[in-house]
Amino acid sequence: MAIVARGLAADLARREAEGRPVRVAVIGCGEMGTDLVTQIARMKGIRVAGIADRSGTNAIEAIRIARLPAEMAAPVNGLPALDAAIEAGRIGIVDDAHLLLRSGQIDVVIDATGRPTAGAEIGLATIRAGKHLVMMNVEADVTIGPYLRREADKAGLVYTIGAGDEPTATMELIEFCTALGFPIIAAGKGKNNAFNPYAVPDDYRAEAERRNMNPRMLVEFVDGSKTMVEMATIANATGLVIDKPGMHGPMATLETLADVFRPMGEGGILTRKGVVDFTLGKGVAPGVFVVVELDHPRLCERMHDLKMGGEGPYYSFYRPHHLTSLEVPLSAARAVIHGTADMVPLDRPMVEVCALAKRDLKPGDRLDAIGETCYRSYAVMAEEARSLRAWPVGLLDKGVVTAPIAKDTLITRDAVEIDGTTTLARLRHEMEIGLWGAPA
User: Fold this and answer.
1) DSSP state for residue 348 in the 8-state scheme
2) Residue 197 burial (CB < 10 Å; 0-12/13-18/19+)?
3) Could you report the per-residue pLDDT of 78-101, keeping only the tens digit for each?
């Protein structure tokens, strides 16, 4: 017997029956974009209508991997040809993302580029074009998320972090616990990869090939950069903080989360409550967790009966999975059908993602991207980052070193000159003026 669809599934089934699916534009067709095409092909009431692919071949390969008919792929030039292809039920493939944004056949845009500079340009252009925006590019969000969210609000559009990554998966637990009135002591993730802060792509190229990954992206996970960004995203959407720069990252296991993430005076590692952090301990990755405090013996008794993690008054809640790009279509559907976001930044960032040098850098050196050889991401409280004049990590790509920077030290505005002409730099500058009256 077929299951009866409820909730969002019923909404999507209705759109399918009515012949008006949610029409998605995917910007970027690497690993994440290919996942999106494959997943959406198996859903009702939503379809990939267009793909922006600079390679010219990745989109066609993604359609093949998704097991869609080859004739679905429609490489086009120009807006009339794009609209005609989408109206005919095909997937318009373009090398210019802005062409997709101009199409009246697109309802929502998913940024799957993974590059902060691209995220800023595409994000702002999406909102200016009157489209909802689902941001998989958390590196862009921690740099200019408040700016983009404000612009979307003014336009009556949805700006949302995509479902399925650790930030939104953690947010589900945070919302559940706070709705029940449980104070949040700590929230975060288990780190998937072994932690090597000095990782560089050449050392991980073979592993990346085995895992069908971009070596830069793999290093971004290994060196902790992605973890810093993800935890900052949670802090900046909730008001939680970090307990210390870079966070603790203890070896807490699934069974000991509530024992480790509690105040120092009670045997834990925290100097304050209400923090984001991560663990390297076994049994947590690829899941996310929240540790709460209960102050009533009746509730503690029930938690013990239900065999929740912890001996009280601290207990851990755990989601054992996050499905990354496979869940993102749900955010696109909710944005279009319900006009709701899964996760948005607050007006003012709580945590800044800065950068530590992976090696000694000398004047004249040109910086590369996150996940490469020059630096790794490092989370610092926003006000401290301002006082230290630290650059947000998202702005550093192609920056030029102007003063010596020692290995393991913070990269500041006094030692690196960035390209201030990019959309990302311009929006960040405007955001800083709007929030603090002047740049750091």
Assistant:
1) S
2) middle
3) 999 999 999 999 999 999 999 999
